[in-house]
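Entry:
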Amino acid sequence: MAIIHRATLEPTKAELVAAWLPTQTWFDGPADVATPVGAYRFDDPDGEVGIESHLFEVGGRLVHVPLTYRGAPLDGAEESLVGTMEHSVLGTRWVYDGPADPVYVAELTRVVSEGDQQVRMWVETPEGDRVEREPTMRVRGSGGDPQDAGVVVVRWPAPGADAPARAVLTGTWAGQDEPVALAYLG
């Protein structure tokens, strides 16, 4: 279960990603505007790292960007730092490209290999209650043996594209009812 704080972020996630995308060797498009399409979350079993993956429309294409949020820098991951943001409740957050973060890799591997799905999200109200937030994306792992070969994030998910014949994470979102491959193990 993910607890979402009512907070302001500076810069916003979309602004942070739009600035970071052009610096990536795999990115080949304009990134002046990254329009959010949907997002899903996984849980860090230790409760220390936020794990959230985003689907953005950039230049008419979908871009899949898994992120992790940390309260301190991740040792040895300077090249994978997307940037920092100020969270009005949690303070400074160091934001990393998910595939470079061992917490993301472990949780994605677990979700895919166990056939699990995104976590439920709860928003804290000003009164201290929690209200469930409806997901903007639904993802599910296929189940299967991870085979110790790492994770592959599908950066440019394409509806109708063939999913790899491996343990895979697929997702759906508003307007996309057929599952689309987002990541796989192997």
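The chain is about 10% helix and 40% strand.
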